[in-house]
Design goal:
The chain is of the alpha/beta class and 461 residues long. The chain has 2 domains: 4-179 and 245-360, Alkaline Phosphatase, subunit A, CATH 3.40.720; 369-456, Arylsulfatase, C-terminal domain (2-Layer Sandwich), CATH 3.30.1120. It is 27% helix and 17% strand. The protein contains 12 helices and 16 strands. It has helices spanning 29-37, 51-60, 64-67, 83-89, 143-156, 207-211, 222-225, 235-270, 302-305, 332-340, 354-357, 440-457, and strands spanning 4-10, 39-41, 44-45, 93-99, 115-119, 129-132, 135-138, 164-169, 277-283, 309-312, 321-323, 327-328, 368-373, 386-391, 394-399, 417-422. A 10-stranded mixed β-sheet has the order 7-6-5-4-8-1-9-10-2-11, with helices on both faces. A 4-stranded antiparallel β-sheet has the order 13-14-15-16, with helices on one face. It has a two-stranded parallel ribbon with strand order 3-12. Helix 5 runs parallel beside helix 8. It starts with a strand and ends with a helix. The relative contact order is 0.18. Bound molecules: calcium ion. The site of calcium ion (CA) has 5 residues, from loops.
Length: 461
C-alpha cells in the first residue's frame, strides 16, 4: 500500500526555535525525534513569506501569481486543482484539521478533503470555534491540543484499507502568542539570549528595513505584551524586557506544539504505522525572533525566508539524514504525489524532494530560488513589495515598492532600491554590497539569474 502522509504545519515557527536546528533558545524533544529518526532540511525556503500565500503554494504546487493568492488579503479559488484532490483520485482518504486561512464559504472552503474541520480566519487560541464540514461549532480547550485531538479522532475512525493524507495545521505560535496553563510558567526563571542582530540600526541597507513597523522596541502592542511595561527602565532595558515578554510566550506556544507532535508520533508508532507513514513537520514561513530587532516575517531575509522541514519515513529515509540542497514550499505538493505513486502534473512548478531524502540529490537540482513578497506597505507592518533571487552564496533583492493593484497593499510607491548580500561573508545580512565595485560582476550575474527565474516561473514584469 502507498504510504500514509501526515503533514503537520504550524504558523510562524522559525527554525531557530527548534532544537534540532539550533537549541540556543529552547528544547523541542519531540520535533527533534523527527530529525533524529529521519531527515532535516537545512535550506528549505518559502517563495513568499506570509501565511495565506505560503499555504496556497503548498496546496497547489504553484507560485502565488499563478494560484491567485498573492497577499494575506487574497482568498483561494478552490475550484482549481490541488494536491488533496489529486491524492483523493489516487485512492487516498484526505483530511485537514486546524488553520486554513484561505477564505470561507463557496469556492473558498477546503476542496479535495473527505473531512475538514478548520479554524475560521486566524482562529482563537482558547475555546476556538471551528468549521467542521461547513458547520460552525465551539471546541472547549486550547487550540493546539484540540487540533491534535481532532486529528487523532479522525485517524481512529479512518478506513484502514486505504492510505491517508492528513494535514494538521496549528494556529500556534502565531501572534498574539497565548500559551496554555500547562506551559504558562515555562522559562519564568531563565533569560532567553538575545539574537546577534538584536540592535540592528538598519544602516547599510535599503530604506525598506528602517521603514518596516515590526520592531520589538516600538511596535509590540499591549495585547502582545500582556503586562504593563515596568517603570524606570532605560530604552535598551525596555527593549530587552519586551523581548523577554515576547519570546517566552512564543516559546511556550512552541512547547505545546512539541508535546502535541509527540502525541501524534506516539499514535503512529503504537498503531504499527511507523514504517509506512511519512510524517512531516514544517511552518508556513520563518519568523524574526528579535533578529534585526524585529518580530514578524515578510522580508526575504534569512530568518523569515527559511522554513523548518523535518521528515520521518523509516522505510526510505535513513535516521539522522541532513539535506543541504535547496528545497522550496512549491516542491511539497510534487513530493506528496511522488510518495503516493501518483503522476505529478507538468503544470506544477516544483519538483519532488523524495530523492533528496534518500541521499540522491540529482545533479541538475536547483541552486537558486525566486522570491516575491507582493503586499506593499500593508497598514500594520509597512514592508515594501520586493522580489529577488537567492543562490547558494548570494541574495539579490529588488524593492520595486509598489502596490500594483494587489489586495491589502497601500498605493504609495517608494523609490525602487536594490540589496545584495554575500551570505558567506555576511550571514546576518547587515551590509548591502550592491554598490560595492568588487561585486559588480556578481550583480550582473545575479540580475541575469533573476530574469531567468522570472521567465521560468512565468512571473512577467
Ligand atoms: Ca504564518
Amino acid at each position: 500500500m502507498s504510504p500514509n502522509i501526515i503533514f503537520i504545519m504550524s504558523d510562524d515557527h522559525a527554525a531557530a526555535a527548534i532544537s534540532a536546528y539550533d537549541g540556543r533558545i529552547n528544547q523541542t524533544p519531540h520535533l527533534d525525534r523527527l530529525a533524529k529518526e529521519g531527515v532535516r532540511f537545512d535550506n528549505c525556503f518559502c517563495t513568499n513569506s506570509i501565511c495565506t500565500p505560503s499555504r496556497a503554494v503548498i496546496l497547489t504546487g504553484l507560485y502565488s501569481h499563478l494560484n491567485g493568492v498573492k497577499t494575506l488579503a487574497d482568498k483561494i479559488d478552490g475550484t482549481q486543482p490541488n494536491v488533496a484532490k489529486m491524492l483523493q483520485a489516487a485512492g487516498y482518504q484526505t483530511a485537514i484539521v486546524g488553520k486554513w486561512h484561505l477564505g470561507h464559504g463557496g469556492v473558498h472552503d477546503p476542496t479535495g478533503f473527505d473531512y475538514w474541520n478548520v479554524l475560521p480566519n486566524q482562529g482563537e487560541y482558547f475555546d476556538p470555534p471551528m468549521i467542521e464540514m461547513g458547520e460552525k461549532k465551539v471546541f472547549p480547550g486550547y487550540a493546539t491540543d484540540i487540533i491534535t485531538d481532532e486529528a487523532l479522532r479522525w485517524l481512529s475512525g479512518r478506513d484502514r484499507s486505504r492510505p491517508f493524507y492528513l494535514m494538521v495545521h496549528h494556529k500556534a505560535p502565531h501572534r498574539p502568542w497565548e500559551p496554555d496553563e500547562k506551559h504558562a510558567h515555562l522559562y519564568d526563571d531563565t533569560t532567553i539570549p538575545e539574537p546577534e542582530t538584536f540592535n540592528d540600526d538598519y544602516r547599510n541597507r535599503a530604506a525598506a528595513a528602517a521603514a518596516a513597523r515590526m520592531r520589538i522596541d516600538r511596535d509590540l502592542k499591549p495585547q502582545d505584551l500582556k503586562q504593563p511595561v515596568p517603570e524606570g527602565l532605560d530604552p535598551q532595558q525596555e527593549k530587552s524586557w519586551k523581548y523577554q515578554r515576547y519570546i517566552k510566550d512564543y516559546l511556550r506556544c512552541v512547547a505545546s506544539i512539541d508535546d502535541n507532535v509527540g502525541r501524534l508520533l506516539d499514535y503512529v508508532d503504537q498503531e504499527g504505522l511507523r514504517d509506512n507513514t511519512v510524517v512531516i513537520y514544517t511552518s508556513d514561513q520563518g519568523f524574526f525572533l528579535g533578529d534585526h530587532g524585529w518580530f514578524d516575517k515578510r522580508f526575504m531575509y534569512e530568518e523569515s525566508l527559511r522554513m523548518p522541514f523535518l521528515v520521518r519515513y523509516p522505510s526510505e529515509v535513513a535516521p539522522g539524514t541532513v539535506v543541504d540542497a535547496m528545497a522550496l514550499n512549491v516542491d511539497f505538493a510534487p513530493t506528496f504525489l511522488d510518495f503516493a505513486g501518483a503522476a505529478i502534473p507538468s503544470t506544477m512548478q516544483g519538483s519532488s524532494l523524495r530523492p533528496l531524502m534518500q541521499g540522491k540529490t540529482p545533479d541538475s537540482w536547483q541552486t537558486s530560488m525566486y522570491y516575491r513578497y507582493w503586499m506593499h506597505m500593508d497598514r500594520v507592518h509597512g514592508v515594501y513589495a520586493h522580489y529577488g533571487v537567492r543562490t547558494l552564496r548570494y541574495k539579490l533583492i529588488y524593492y520595486y515598492a509598489q502596490a500594483l493593484g494587489t489586495s491589502g497593499s497601500t498605493d504609495d510607491p517608494k523609490p525602487p532600491e536594490w540589496e545584495l548580500f554575500d551570505l558567506e561573508k555576511d550571514p546576518f545580512e547587515m551590509r548591502n554590497v550592491f554598490d560595492d565595485p568588487s561585486y559588480a560582476e556578481v550583480v550582473v550575474e545575479l540580475q541575469r539569474e533573476l530574469q531567468r527565474l522570472k521567465d521560468k516561473v512565468q512571473d512577467p514584469e
